[in-house]
Structures are given as C-alpha cells and as structure tokens.
C-alpha cells in the first residue's frame, strides 16, 4: 500500500492482510464522507482491494455481499456531505425555509450518523474470509435474508399481497423470510383450522409485530403427514429463495428414503431427526440440507439405537410398565370376593385380587370362617 493510499484514495498495493484490506476499504468510505475523495474514487479503492484479496484464493468465488455492504455505506453518507464542490451553496432563504422542519429531523439524522460501521464488528474479518468459501447457493440465501431483513414487515406485506404466493400459514412466513426452520406442525395444523388464524403479538425492541398463529390441533406424526407438510413448506421457501429448489427436493427424497428404510414403529425418530437438521441449518446459516456430513452427529443422536435421544426415549418407555404394575398392586390389596365366596377359579398368583379374608384382611381363611369378623358381628 502506498503512503498516500488512505488520504488520496489511491488503490493500495498488495501485501496486506485481511484486516489491513478491510481498514483500507473503511478508510476510503471515511475519506468520501469527509469530502476528500469522490464516490467513484472510493468505489475504485474498495473494489481493487477486495479483488486483490480474492486473487489470493483463485479457487473461490468473489464475496459480492462484502462489496455491496461497502457500497451501502457510501450511500448512507449524510445529506450535507453528499454535496460536491461543484454544487451551489444553499441560499440564506432556503436555509431559513428548511430550519422550521429541521427540528423533527435532528433525532433521525443523529441516529443515522451514529450507526455502527459493520466493517468494525469483531467478526467482520472472519465473515469476509468465510464468505469466500461458502457454497454459491448459501451465499445467495444470505444475500436474500439480509435483503428481507432490512424491513421484514414490508416483505411480509408484499408476500400477503402477491397473487403468486402459495397457500401457507401467515405466522410461518416470518420464519421463511428470515431463513429459520419452518414449524411443520403449524403447516400441517393449518389444514385442520377452519377459522381465521389467531392473532399473536411479538415485541422486538420498540416495535410490536402482530400476526396470526394457527392453534396446533394436530402434529406431524407419520410419513404421510410429513410429506404433506414438507411439500407445502417447499413451495413457500422456494417462493422466497428460488435457487433452493433442487436442495429442498433432494433433502425431501433423503428423508423419504429414511422412512422407507426404517420400520414404521421408529418413524418418530426420523421426524425428530428432521427437526434437528432443519433447526441447525436455519441457525448456523452456512449449511446445505443436502450435505449429510454436517448432520452425521444428529443422525446418531436421533436415529441410531445408541443415540442419546433414542436411549432416553426407551428408558422412559420402560418406566411406564412399572407404573401399570403399581396400579395392579393397588388392585391386589383388595380381597377377592369370589375367593371369599369359594368360586374363584384363579390361583392366588394369577388372580388380580388378593386371596385373603374380606373381613379382617388376613390370609389362610375366608370371611365366613373369620373369627374376628364373627366377633364384630
């Protein structure tokens, strides 16, 4: 990097590390905001630096989202700094005419000026390097998630007013647009909800979001129910992320193959595994559903016989018979009436009731032979 790179807007020479490249790009933005260089010069510096970083890894695709983030910083330049040297100075009358309205804009302008620079975030350098290694489909998904996230409420309104949007629970569109895992139980329950969806409100910071959430009257519990819910979810996800169609179709075929390979009594394990996979993919933002290696540990945990969740479920199921035996034991505390009447055909070990005296509860005799019962009479 030349000595005047950060002051004159000249592109830096190679040899910088990742953090150095980010610092040069950030300085170009600051120089433009300060009026020392033009916007064209700032764009040239930023693009040159990022291209030089890409050349260090010729086998990877360029990080378009990083360039776009810096271009967004240039567009966020305060209004009074956007005027070039050739722009006429505002007249005194125009200043007076705007002064009356300036009071209401002070808070907003101050808020815009105080917005943090994303390039200074602690994870900025790591994000930049990881961005060059992401699968193109994952990178495209992240771009759209950032786009929808700029105004999620507006994005949901556009979906609601779109004639091409598929039928889908309104409450789940937020998960779709944010790239989170869709709740297939809500998708499936929507089929059995005859009325309008109940409104639910959520508060994020100073904003309150109101939407309708269906009451989960029925949960996905079988192969056929999962296929129906997944098909509905696939239509909604590909509406917002068209490039994911092949990924979603392949993942659906993978899960259907598991249903075919495992016995029906253990299909619940596949449903748990599917939830865990989609939760991880929706939380980490860097996985494709079709990359089985990224979810191998979840397959062991939820499907294999030695998995932690499978072991806990089986231990819980084994504890249920003991409860039933306990209820049987409580029934055995009651004396057998047929035994006392001399008509019980069961052995004492096989009878559900105790072969004991119905009068005193003692063993070895019936109520008609009970001395204690005779005394009470």
Please explain how this structure is put together.
The N terminus is likely disordered. By secondary structure, this protein is mostly helical. Helix content is 57%, strand content 4%. It is elongated and about 115 Å long. The protein is built from 18 helices and two strands. Helix 2 packs antiparallel against helix 3, helix 3 runs antiparallel to helix 4 and helix 14 packs antiparallel against helix 15. Strands 1-2 form a two-stranded antiparallel ribbon. The protein starts with a helix and ends with a helix.
Strand order of the largest sheet: 1-2
Low-confidence stretches: 1-14, 79-90, 93-100, 321-330
Strand fraction equals under 5%
Helix/strand structural class: mainly alpha
Q: Specify Rg, calculated over alpha carbons.
A: 35 Å
Mean pLDDT: 76
**How many strands appear in the DSSP assignment?**
2
**Approximate shape:** elongated
Tally of helical segments: 18
Give the helix level as a range of percent. Answer: 55-70%
Q: What is the helix/strand order?
A: HHHHHHHHHHHEEHHHHHHH
Distance between the termini: 113 Å
Major sheet: size, sense and barrel closure?
Answer: 2 strands, antiparallel
- Identify the quaternary structure here: single chain
């Amino acid at each position: 990097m030349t000595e005047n790179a950060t002051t004159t807007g000249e592109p830096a020479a190679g040899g910088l590390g990742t953090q150095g490249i980010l610092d040069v790009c950030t300085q170009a933005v600051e120089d433009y905001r300060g009026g020392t260089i033009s916007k064209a010069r700032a764009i040239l510096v930023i693009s040159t630096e990022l291209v030089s970083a890409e050349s260090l890894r010729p086998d990877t695709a360029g990080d378009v989202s990083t360039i776009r983030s810096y271009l967004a910083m240039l567009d966020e330049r305060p209004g009074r700094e956007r005027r070039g040297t050739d722009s006429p100075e505002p007249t005194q009358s125009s200043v007076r005419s705007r002064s009356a309205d300036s009071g209401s804009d002070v808070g907003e302008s101050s808020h815009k000026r105080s917005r943090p620079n994303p390039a200074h975030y602690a994870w900025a350098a790591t994000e930049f390097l990881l961005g060059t290694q992401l699968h193109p489909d994952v990178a495209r998904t992240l771009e759209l998630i950032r786009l929808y996230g700029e105004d999620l409420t507006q994005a949901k309104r556009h979906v609601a007013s779109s004639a091409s949007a598929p039928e889908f629970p309104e409450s789940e569109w937020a998960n779709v647009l944010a790239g989170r895992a869709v709740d297939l139980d809500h998708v499936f329950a929507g089929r059995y909800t005859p009325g309008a969806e109940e409104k639910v409100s959520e508060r994020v910071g100073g904003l309150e979001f109101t939407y309708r959430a269906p009451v989960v009257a029925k949960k996905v519990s079988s192969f056929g129910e999962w296929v129906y819910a997944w098909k509905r979810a696939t239509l909604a996800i590909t509406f917002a992320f068209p490039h994911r169609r092949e990924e979603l179709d392949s993942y659906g075929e993978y899960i259907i193959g598991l249903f075919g390979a495992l016995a029906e009594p253990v299909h619940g394990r596949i449903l748990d595994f599917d939830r865990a996979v989609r939760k991880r993919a929706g939380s980490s933002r860097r996985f494709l559903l079709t990359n089985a290696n990224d979810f191998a540990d979840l397959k062991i945990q939820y499907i294999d016989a030695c998995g932690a969740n499978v072991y806990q479920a089986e231990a819980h199921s084994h504890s249920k018979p003991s409860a039933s035996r306990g209820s049987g034991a409580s029934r055995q505390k009651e004396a057998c009436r047929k035994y006392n009447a001399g008509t019980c055909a069961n052995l004492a070990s096989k009878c559900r009731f105790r072969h004991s005296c119905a009068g005193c509860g003692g063993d070895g005799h019936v109520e008609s032979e009970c001395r204690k019962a005779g005394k009470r009479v």
